[in-house]
Amino acid sequence: MGDFLQYVDLNTYLHRLDPRTKFLFFIIMSILTSFVKSGVALLFLFLVFLAIWLVGRIGQYMLVLLDKIKVLLLFIFLLWLVLGIFTINEGPVLFRTAFSIFGHPFVVSLEAFDFYKGAVYALRIFLMISAFYTVILTTNFSQIILGLRSWKVPYAIAFGVGLVFQIIPMIVQEFATIMEAQKSRGLEVDKCSTFAKLKNYVIVSLPLLFRVLSKGHAISLAMHYYKLNFKVQRTAYKMIKATSSDLFFSAVTVLATVVTIVLQVHYYIPI
């Protein structure tokens, strides 16, 4: 479970899919979650993701992911909650007061809509991250490159994209390691004020930067020592081929996209 951010070798429906099918799923879902702002539409999309995770038997790993980014999601929720205090919205009012500073009137208002808005943005971010890790957990490094190469993508670009899919989980894992080390030294991150959390994250960012630079240097040295040459013509031992399973998964993805857009149009509340 410690390697939840990396490829999990399982024999499931999701793992057996063509990597190109999963890559298209990632692209479509990334675009979709970037503009959908309806709570109903996002909730439906979350149920679609949940069904996919259950089929791929990666639900437990997504729960661990949720636990790891809960601070980020809480920060996003609280940020929009604070911003909403200075905006008057329609709907049930939970708290409202007026005051003046140097003759300028101000109104502080907290409505139920502010909680809705914070939840919507937190769910959007979670789905964006989940789409990425759904691919990571079910597709290994070589499959990503092989899938892109089958689209006639130059090997250098395909290798770079595959490397990004590997490096980002490594960076997150390094961040989690540094956070645990700082906690053991007495740095409180979870049970403190929002301002204290921001300050502590800034403190952690410096060693994270050096760790990331060190990882990048190690990768570049490995590529140099092994004399990686992108101009060499490469073959693959295993060929990929779309099957009826890929067609079915693509159809489900398209259907889920259409339903999400329809729900977005009908149930969108301006935020």
Automatic annotation (TrEMBL):
* Entry keywords, A to Z: Cell membrane, Membrane, Transmembrane, Transmembrane helix
Record membrane topology: Multi-pass membrane protein
User: Which CDD domains does UniProt cross-reference here?
Assistant: EcfT
Localization terms from the record: Membrane
- Principal place of residence: membrane
Stretch forming the signal peptide? none
Query: Could you name the domain of life of the organism this protein comes from?
Result: Bacteria
Which residue ranges traverse the bilayer?
Answer: 23-56, 68-86, 93-113, 119-141, 153-172, 247-269
The answer on whether this UniProt entry bears the keyword Membrane reads: yes
One Pfam family from the record = CbiQ
Annotated InterPro entries: ABC/ECF_trnsptr_transmembrane, ECF_transporter_component
PANTHER family to which the protein is assigned, alphabetical: SLL0384 PROTEIN (PTHR34857)
Q: What is the recorded name of this protein?
A: Energy-coupling factor transporter transmembrane component T family protein
Q: Which organism is it from?
A: Sporolactobacillus kofuensis
